[in-house]
Design a protein that fits this description.
Elements: E1 4-9, E2 17-19, H1 27-36, H2 43-64, E3 69-72, E4 86-93, H3 102-110, E5 116-127, E6 130-143, E7 149-159, E8 168-175, H4 181-192, E9 196-201
Antiparallel strand pairs: 1-9, 2-3, 3-4, 4-8, 5-6, 6-7, 7-8
Helix pairs in contact: 1-2
Amino acid sequence: MGESEWEGGFDLPDDTWVLLSVRDDEAPARAAREVAEREGESASLYAEALLPELESLHAAGRRQGAAPFAAWVPEVPRQADPLIPLVAYMVRQESPEAGRTVEAVAAVCRESHPARLGEVEIREVDLPLGPACRVREINLAAETDDGRYTVAEHVTFYVLAEPWPEGILQFSVTWTIPGLGDAFAEEADAMAHTLWMTRRSTDAMAL
């Protein structure tokens, strides 16, 4: 057998989500064109306004090694930044020093973090892909131009994926709209149940 590597993915809730392949430099522009093709006279202007955020998210996903990386682009443009308030992505992580167990992952997640606001919610869940540690938390995110900080909420699943025993699969859903946390958390839970992972040859099409 030749060299192989792992790939994975998850189902997108609907067609308002766009994929940003971190291996494709043209992914942000392609996603913007998808938005421009939506119905409505202002779709092209919406797509033009979205492009800088799509490029920034694409760069962030590439730095993290995320694959796939998806972003929710609401049908109706938001009247406040960010225009893209919700993202989801997968990234592979090394196992904790204490071992590849849900308990070891939970212990790491309980450690204090300077950007964390309030209590962190941690619990063990069973997913079709394998047992997981589910973490919900609120963090201070990027500083804005006027010196204030945005707040981001996250639901992250650290999955002991049965097809991939080498490490931990991280699936994160992050949003920046206050007051919709429970609805987005439910969406994250539903997406986590569609996670998949498999081995592919290196000459297969990249994500």
